[in-house]
């Protein structure tokens, strides 16, 4: 496996994570680390263990084996479905979570997030009346209120149209590049992972199959599934999974 | 926790229908219960025809009873529609304008007076009933029967009293007026004295023996007729009622009705609100985000129960204030009211939290809250003796496990100045708060599943 973080200092480290749901093993000894400013895409088919991995990293569920180290800073978590109150306004949502985060200047942090998300003019609107894309931006903004050093996003672009998707990724990429936030996102859209992820972590049936750069994954795919080398990357990736028995 | 409480109140304010129902519901209940307990039941309409001559009086011995057929007593119990004749009475009943007709015939007094003559006749009144509405018809029958029973009792008592006087005359002698003339009655006692005085002057023989037999008869007759007096007086009302109140803590009906209305309101508001707002955290996907370290699960439960108690307190007090328009309430006991509402609200709220944690979706929670609260509330109102002892024991257990009954007991104790102490009910509520709090805390684990 191609460990992608190079010589950077890891801000997040997971070792031999195991998670079971009854008889089924959702994660089988997954190890993983990320450094400041990393933009890591966790990819894999449905049921691969992507959401389970992010939930453990976020501290929402506990692993049955292995350990997670987050040396410093907070972990921001953005669930797949927007976790906010649709009957409150944009501003009320942000202010509520800023207060619950015990932010020293809740109103200041709300202004900052409104500016960051570009929703300042819509601060007084009820969230339920906003588009799915804008709801997702607030969802992410809530995850950023505590100024986390690590941001975990579970399939952040699901349900968004192409324009909303582009605006969302512009925002996320800027977080990693300009703020040095470590961003780890899950997706089963291979093209999205290839385009925005600086590193890819491939999961299938709870097992980590690959951890490295996009180019590294292309190399492994063409090596293990040469018959798909001339096809598009998604088809080649599926062929790679077949070769690995998934 | 206060920020979450503020958030829930903001959400509540943003739901106009829900907020309206929370206010409208107690006001509606207050008005309905207020009218129900401040107005007597509707009187059935009865046609009334009194053919008894105005000068006729029932005479028993030397005494005349008040004019019979005076409609005041009858019309207190039914709404009297006075008719001119028998045909009009029948027409009123047939048309359905009245449920029944009561006719006092012209010879009623004569027949009653004949009861104290050697040729007694049976007095009768005529009742014509329209049984189109069986419930009201039964009510009319019951009331007319009750009136007649009372009239019969008055007459029987007078007859018994007059009979007792006649008996006294037979026993002890005295004066008796008949057809304007006063007659001296000798009486058994005086007869015996005369015969006893006469006896020594008679020679021994058959005549003396005959006098002895008469003396013996008068003695025996006097002794036995002495017991006839009390017997005659008991004949008027053979069965006396000796009522003993065993449970002196029973509240007045008005107080109980208000307590039931207030507890119903409190139960629905707190159970639905707490269960619904907890399920909303799950439905909005906010629960995992909140419990990642922002709020502990116990604090979240406490906040939801506090929300339910606060809104329940406001709504229940509003309802009691509404009821105070119809029925005087003891505002001096408001401290106890607050204790009852807060204690009952907290127990009902924790039960709502357990339901909310179990069902997770707002719609499912609302349905579940209705399905649990409504039947348990009705079961809690079933009085003893109306079902079999075994079934009543089961009902008592169910009622004790859900907080409605102890909340009702606390509310009744708080509202009733002559009622029992509120302490027992509050202790019961305290136990249920702990039990349902633990249950809700365990059920919240299911919320964590992402």
What does this structure look like?
The complex is a heterodimer of chains A (246) and B (450). Chain A is an alpha/beta fold and 246 residues long. Chain A has helices spanning 50-58, 90-100, 106-117, 132-144, 162-179, 190-196, 214-224, 233-243, and strands at 10-21, 24-35, 39-43, 65-69, 75-78, 150-154, 182-187, 199-204, 207-212. Chain A has two domains: 10-73 and 149-243, Rossmann fold (3-Layer(aba) Sandwich); 88-148, no CATH class. Chain A contains eight helices and nine strands. Chain A starts with 9 loop residues before the first strand and ends with a helix. Chain B is 65% helix and 7% strand. The two termini of chain B are 23 Å apart. In chain B, strand 2 (59-60) and strand 3 form a beta hairpin. Chain B has a four-stranded mixed beta sheet with strand order 4-1-5-6, with helices on both faces. Chain B has a two-stranded antiparallel sheet with strand order 2-3. The model of chain B has no long low-confidence stretch (mean pLDDT 81). The A-B interface holds A 51, 55, 58-61, 77, 79, 81-88, 92, 96-97, 99-101, 126, 142 and B 3-4, 6-7, 10-11, 14-15, 284-286, 288-290, 292-295, 448, 450.
The overall average pLDDT of chain A, rounded, is: 84
How many strands of chain A? 9
CATH architecture descriptor text of the largest domain in chain A: 3-Layer(aba) Sandwich
From the alpha-carbon coordinates, what is the Rg of chain B to the nearest angstrom?
Answer: 36 Å
Give the SSE string of chain A.
EEEHEEHHHEHEHEEHH
Cα Rg of chain A: 18 Å
Q: What oligomeric state do the depicted chains represent?
A: heterodimer
CATH fold group of the largest domain in chain A:
Rossmann fold
| Overall structural domain count of chain A | 2
Note the total helix count of chain A: 8
Describe the strand arrangement of the main beta sheet of chain B, using strand numbers: 4-1-5-6
Overall tally of structural domains of chain B: 3
SS strand fraction of chain B: 5-15%
| Structural classification of chain B | alpha/beta
Output mean pLDDT of chain B: 81
Fourth CATH level, the homologous superfamily of the largest domain in chain A: P-loop containing nucleotide triphosphate hydrolases
């Amino acid at each position: 496996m191609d460990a992608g973080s190079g010589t950077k200092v890891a801000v997040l480290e997971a070792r031999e994570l195991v998670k079971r749901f009854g008889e089924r093993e959702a994660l089988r000894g997954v190890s993983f680390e990320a450094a400041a400013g990393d933009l890591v895409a966790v990819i894999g088919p449905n049921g691969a263990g992507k959401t389970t991995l992010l939930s453990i990293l976020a501290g929402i569920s506990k692993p049955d084996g292995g350990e997670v180290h987050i040396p410093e800073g907070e972990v921001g978590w953005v669930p797949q479905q927007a976790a906010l109150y649709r009957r409150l306004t944009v501003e009320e949502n942000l202010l509520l979570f800023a207060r619950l985060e015990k932010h020293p200047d809740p109103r200041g942090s709300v202004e900052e997030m409104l500016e960051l998300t570009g929703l300042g003019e819509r601060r007084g609107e009820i969230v339920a009346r906003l588009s799915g894309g804008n709801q997702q931006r607030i969802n992410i903004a809530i995850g950023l209120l505590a100024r986390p050093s690590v941001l975990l996003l579970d399939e952040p672009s699901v349900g968004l149209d192409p324009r909303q998707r582009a605006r969302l990724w512009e925002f996320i990429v800027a977080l990693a590049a300009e703020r040095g936030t470590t961003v780890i996102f899950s997706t089963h859209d291979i093209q999205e992972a290839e385009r925005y992820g600086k590193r890819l972590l491939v999961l299938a049936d709870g097992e980590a199959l690959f951890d490295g750069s996009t180019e590294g994954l292309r190399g492994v795919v063409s090596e293990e599934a040469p018959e798909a080398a001339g096809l598009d990357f998604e088809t080649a990736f599926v062929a790679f999974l077949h070769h690995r028995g998934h | 926790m206060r920020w979450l409480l503020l958030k829930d109140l903001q959400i509540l304010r943003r739901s106009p229908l829900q907020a309206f129902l929370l206010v409208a519901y107690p006001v509606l209940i207050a008005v309905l219960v207020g009218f129900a307990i401040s107005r007597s039941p509707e009187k059935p309409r009865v046609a009334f025809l009194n053919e008894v001559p105005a000068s006729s009086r029932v005479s028993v011995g030397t005494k005349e009873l008040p004019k019979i057929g005076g409609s005041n007593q009858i019309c207190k119990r039914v709404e009297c529609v006075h008719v001119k004749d028998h045909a009009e009475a029948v027409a009123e009943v047939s048309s359905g304008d009245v449920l029944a007709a009561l006719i006092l015939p012209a010879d009623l007094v004569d027949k009653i007076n004949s009861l104290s003559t050697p040729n007694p006749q049976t007095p009768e009144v005529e009742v014509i009933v329209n049984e189109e509405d069986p419930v009201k018809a039964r009510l009319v029958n019951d009331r007319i029967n009750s009136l007649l029973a009372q009239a019969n009792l008055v007459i029987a008592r007078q007859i018994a009293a007059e009979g007792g006087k006649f008996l006294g005359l037979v026993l002890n002698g005295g004066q008796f007026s008949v057809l304007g003339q006063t007659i001296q009655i000798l009486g058994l006692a005086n007869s015996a004295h005369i015969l006893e005085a006469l006896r020594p002057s008679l020679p021994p023989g058959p005549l003396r023996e005959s006098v002895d037999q008469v003396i013996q008869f008068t003695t025996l007759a006097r002794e036995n007729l002495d017991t006839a007096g009390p017997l005659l007086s008991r004949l008027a009302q053979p069965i006396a009622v000796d009522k003993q109140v065993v449970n002196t803590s029973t509240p007045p009906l008005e107080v109980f009705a208000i307590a039931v209305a207030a507890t119903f309101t409190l139960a629905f508001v707190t159970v639905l609100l707490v269960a619904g707002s907890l399920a909303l955290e799950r439905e909005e996907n906010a629960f995992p985000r909140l419990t990642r370290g922002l709020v502990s699960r116990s604090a979240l439960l406490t906040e939801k129960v506090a929300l339910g108690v606060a809104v329940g307190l406001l709504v229940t007090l509003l309802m009691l204030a509404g009821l105070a328009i119809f029925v005087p309430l003891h505002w001096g006991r408001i401290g106890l009211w607050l204790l009852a509402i807060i204690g009952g609200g907290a127990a009902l709220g924790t039960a709502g939290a357990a339901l909310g944690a179990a069902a997770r979706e707002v719609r499912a929670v609302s349905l579940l809250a209705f399905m649990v609260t409504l039947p348990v509330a009705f079961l809690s109102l079933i009085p003893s003796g109306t079902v079999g002892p075994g079934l009543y024991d089961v009902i008592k257990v169910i009622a004790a496990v859900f907080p409605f009954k102890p909340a009702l007991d606390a509310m009744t104790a708080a509202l009733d100045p002559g009622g029992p102490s509120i302490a027992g009910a509050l202790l019961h509520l305290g136990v249920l708060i702990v039990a349902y709090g633990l249950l809700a805390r365990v059920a919240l684990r299911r919320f964590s599943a992402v």
